[in-house]
Amino acid sequence: MKDQPSPLRETDDDARKLARVLLRSARYAAIAVLDPETGFPFASRVLVATDIDGSPVILVSQLSAHTSALAKDPRASLLTGEPGRGDPLAYPRLTTQCLAEPVERSNPFYERIRTRFLARHTKATLYIDFPDFLFFRLKPEQASLNGGFGRAYLLDGNDLVIQSAANEAIAVEAAETVRDLVERHPDIAEALAIRLKAPESGPWRICGIDSSGFDMISGDFLLRYEFETLAVDADHICSNMSKVAYSIP
After folding, report:
1. Residue 43 half-sphere exposure, CB side, CA atoms within 13 Å?
2. Whole-number pLDDT of residue 202
3. How high is the pLDDT of residue 249?
4. Edge-to-edge strands of the sheet including 221-226?
5. How far is CA 247 from CA 19, 204, 239, 242, in A?
């Protein structure tokens, strides 16, 4: 009997980029945890943002079943990727296996994560500071990418994390960087939306930057753009964004 061909393709840069975009452009995701009482998988839905290194971040109530499950066992899987018209299985999706790390309010990274989360989910201001809500940072361990029929890949967790020594410095300057960029170019968000063929919606705004790219949001739409190479500092990010917005196609 002949060996069956592997359904997996060799993981290349295009697959890695697609996986990163699927993870970093998600506003929400399905999360699967292990029920501590029965051991069965338990799936729920969570809002998602990203830390400065691209790791997903979730805000959850301590009263929810998935929160108590993560407190007992930090292993979780996150499903990202949106279907469109027609067959939902024809659209790319990513399953990321993670280890959940609680982010306490005393954590030096707490304010950074809170700021980045609110930039993406402004309505969370209604409950983000309630004492029974907390953040988990989901550290990617490995991932399975289905890019559509016949396009399956396995990825290492490091394929999804931004490996840059500039992460912390960029995080400190992120809000000021975006503010200064918009002051210099008041139409940059609109120009980026046009250049990137964003869905027609209300006004677009920049809601996050990192050394690997930037995020823009308008209503229910979130757009992620990945740079060709990692930016080395905040000025480099601004330069890259300006080139995308204003360079001749």
Report:
1. 6
2. 87
3. 63
4. 205-210, 213-218, 221-226
5. 27, 19, 11, 8
Is 23 within 8 Å of 70 (Cβ atoms)? no
CA distances 26 to 15, 19, 37, 72, 135, Å, are 17, 11, 30, 26, 17
Angle at which helices 167-184 and 234-246 cross, to 10°: 40
Decide if 121 contacts 68 (C-beta within 8 A).
no
Query: Hey, what amino acid is at 114?
Result: R
Structure tokens, 224? 């992620």
Q: Rounded to the nearest 10 degrees, how much is the dihedral formed by the CA atoms of 23, 27, 29, 35?
A: 110
Given this model, what pLDDT does residue 107 score?
Answer: 94
Q: Are 114 and 122 a contacting pair, CB within 8 Å?
A: no
Provide the pairing of β-strand 41-50 with 93-103. Answer: unpaired
Given the DSSP bridges, would you call strands 133-146 and 205-210 parallel, antiparallel or unpaired? unpaired
What are the tens digits of pLDDT across the range 33-47? 999 999 999 999 999
Structure tokens at 220: 């229910």
Across 199-223, average pLDDT: 95
pLDDT in tens, 110-144: 999 999 999 999 999 999 999 999 999 999 999 99
Task: With a cut of 60, say whether residue 22 has pLDDT above it.
Answer: yes
Q: Across all residues in the chain, what is the average pLDDT? A: 94
Q: Residue 236: enclosing H or E segment and its boundaries?
A: helix 234-246
* Sheet strands (E) in the chain: 28-34, 41-50, 56-61, 75-80, 93-103, 133-146, 152-156, 205-210, 213-218, 221-226
